[in-house]
Amino acid sequence: MADGTVGPVTRTPPMVTYSYGESPECVADLRVPAAAPRACVVLLHGGYWRDRYRRDVMEPLAESLAADGIATWNVEYRRVGSGGGVPRTIDDVAAAIEYLAQLAQLREAGLGPVILVGHSAGAHLALCAAGRHRRRGSPSVGAAAVVALCAVCDLERAAREGLSNRAAVDFAGGEPDHWPLLYAEASPPRLLPLGVPYLLLHGMADDSVPWQLSADFHQRAIEAGDHGDLLLLEEVGRFEPIDPATPAGQRVLAWIDELLEQG
Fold first, then answer.
1. d(CA 216, CA 154)
2. In CA terms, which of 82, 88, 183, 235 is 20 to 30 Å from 135?
3. What is the pLDDT of residues 173-225, one digit of tens each?
4. Domain residue spans in the chain?
């Protein structure tokens, strides 16, 4: 400060890595504030489900949320090239979320309501996790809300349009016409209604995932009886929404804050 005094220092809680499954890829990083957490945000990174992309891309968002009194659970999962695919990757994410029940028991104050936040292919996984009860029964750890950033909202459409060199086909192990039941379980539109509030935020300058996927999913979700928000941001690309230093990233944090304030 100009007068020589020192202002309050925001400290990021220490990070602890846990294994939630048998695969070396099934790990996640937990940050918990010293005070009772306002919530626990599950972070799911993108990368079109390919193994060359990892959870480190979500670290700035994890640190920002944790510094704001929110516990974060930054999840790694098996990806194409490291044992992943449908349904293994989707099951990994479900197992990671279920593991939070054990971690909450270790803390007297618990971890608070669970909010799923995913980016790109990770947003697909977040939507699948939010709607998993439609196919697999009620989980022990349910989501209070889901935030899907630049989401690959529709696995079938992504496969038919050949997005990112047919990444969806590789992830699913075949074309939609060959595996209709598999796509029915792994494509978010087939899991509607989600039954929880959602935010779909998509940069209209995203050159990897068309923003129309989020717009179309929003329309289908509303028609199915869900309630959520769609934010299409002009001149915003693929990575700004997961950067808390950008206006797009600030919109994400503000939406989560408002959700928690509303209780």
1. 9
2. 82
3. 999 999 999 998 899 999 999 999 999 999 999 999 999 999 999 999 999 99
4. 15-151+192-258
User: What are the residue ranges in the chain where pLDDT is below 70?
Assistant: 1-11
Q: Which letter does DSSP use for residue 140 in this model?
A: S
Nearest CA-CA partner of 129 in 196, 72, 58, 63: 196
Q: 15-151+192-258 in CATH: which number?
A: 3.40.50.1820
Number of other CB atoms surrounding residue 162 within 10 Å: 11
Give the pLDDT confidence score for residue 133 in this predicted structure.
82
Give the predicted TM-score (pTM) of the model. Answer: 0.94
How many whole angstroms separate alpha carbon 103 and alpha carbon 31? 11
How far, in Å, CA of 183 to CA of 25, rounded? 24
- Residue 75 contacts by C-beta under 8 Å, 6 or more apart in sequence? 28, 42, 43, 44, 45, 55, 92, 93, 96
C-alpha span between 109 and 120 (Å, rounded): 32
Instruction: Give the whole-angstrom CA distance, residue 146 versus residue 110.
Output: 20
Cα–chain-centroid distance for residue 90? 12
Tally helices (H) and strands (E) across the chain: 9, 8
Phi, psi of 5, rounded to the nearest 5 degrees: -80, 160
List strands edge to edge, sheet with 15-19: 15-19, 27-31, 71-75, 40-44, 114-119, 143-149, 198-203, 228-233
Beta-bridged to residue 222, according to DSSP, are: none
> At 172, is the secondary structure helix, strand, or coil?
helix
CA distance 155 to 90: 12
> Looking only at Cα atoms, what is the longest distance across the chain?
70
